[in-house]
Amino acid sequence: MTAPPFVLTGFADEIASDLETQLDVLQSLDVSYLDLRSVWGRNVLDLEPDELSTIERELAARDMAVSAIGSPIGKIDITDPFDPHLNRFETALNRAARFDADYVRLFSYWMPDDEPPSEYRAEVMRRMQRKTELAADAGVTLLHENEKDIYGETPGRVRDLVTTVDSPRLRTVFDPANYLEVGVEPFPDALVQTVESVEYLHVKDAVHGERGAIRPAGEGDGRIPETLAALAARGFTGFASLEPHLADANEKGGFSGPEAFECAAHALQDCLDDVDVRYR
Fold first, then answer.
1. Which residue range forms the structural domain that includes residue 140?
2. Cα-flanking dihedrals φ and ψ of residue 30, to 5°?
3. CATH label of the domain that carries residue 43
4. How many domains does the chain divide into?
5. Quick one: what percent of the chain has pLDDT higher than 70?
6. Strand partners, 110
7. In the predicted structure, residue 32 carries a pLDDT above the cut 80
8. Which of 129, 158, 170, 215 would give a disulfide with 220, using CB separation of 3.0 to 4.6 Å?
9. Are 71 and 105 in contact (CB under 8 A)?
10. What is the pLDDT of residue 2?
11. 3-state SS, one letter per residue, for the chain
12. Section 69-98 average pLDDT
């Protein structure tokens, strides 16, 4: 029997700030991976060596692993200096190596409100190209997330980014809710335009055209069951990551709490079951 198309993972800091609660809840849901974004209220890029060692020990003791480093790289203004941010990006690559993670999640810079993104396209591409080169040297794959208000917030610009950089080390996260919040239909419109680069899913649903109206999978306008079925039929294999944002969403991430996170996990599992797609 072939392996299931989807491996479940999740942003554990949406559960709680402390590591023990994060891992307890994931294990209770039979989820053995996590997107490592923050622990004890601080991003993984800012943790001290002893804190990183604690995480390593706990993961090994529970036979759990990191699916991706949930970095904030690229969540700065495109007009901000690049070199200090590039140094921080190198820390993200080091964290990926330390936790044996294949992926680092990142973004493509906040765009000025009063100017068209096309004015900054060349600088976005220059920065993303350089980071992709460093990632290739490190053996890490970068995952660009279609976040709101960045260059790559729309499927057309996501495709532009990936085809321009043109490297197997730059792939994309498909986040249906983020597309919905900027008025884009994730399925089939955004998926058709970006599917060739999609290597990871962030699972949260939303109401079309409304910012902050986040829902569990299948309870919004994201057509998540159809998306899962289409990817499985296409031969997709990879991570489906729970990022529910059911209690709070902000520039640094989001929060749900243990009960809401469990609700989001069961909603995703129901979507997969409804379209008869296997997962583990």
1. 6-274
2. 60, 35
3. 3.20.20.150
4. 1
5. 97
6. 77, 150
7. yes
8. 215
9. yes
10. 76
11. CCCCCEEEEEEHHHCCCCHHHHHHHHHHCCCCEEEECEECCEEHHHCCHHHHHHHHHHHHHHCCEEEEECCCCCCCECCCCCHHHHHHHHHHHHHHHHCCCCEEEECCCECCCCCCHHHHHHHHHHHHHHHHHHHHHHCCEEEEECCCCEHHHCHHHHHHHHHHHCCCCEEEEECHHHHHHCCCCHHHHHHHHHHHHEEEEEECEECCCCCCCEECCCCCCCCHHHHHHHHHHHCCCEEEEECCCCCEEECCEEECCHHHHHHHHHHHHHHHHHCCCCEC
12. 98
Q: Cβ distance 55 to 19 under 8 Å?
A: yes
In a domain, 1, yes or no: no
Proportion of the chain above pLDDT 90, given as a percent: 93
Give the span between the Cα atoms of 67 and 269, in whole angstroms.
19
The structure tokens listed for 212 are 């902050």
Q: Answer whether the bond into residue 155 is a cis peptide, omega within 30°.
A: no
Specify if 279 maps to a domain. no
pLDDT at position 19: 98
pLDDT greater at residue 178 or residue 249: 178
Under a CB-based contact definition with an 8 Å cutoff, are residues 92 and 45 in contact?
Answer: yes
Q: HSE on the CB side for 213, CA within 13 Å?
A: 15
In a domain, 182, yes or no: yes
How far does CA 167 lie from the centroid of its chain? 19
Cβ pair 26, 64 in contact under 8 A: yes
For residue 76, tell me if it sits in a domain.
yes
Distance CA 4, CA 1 (A): 9
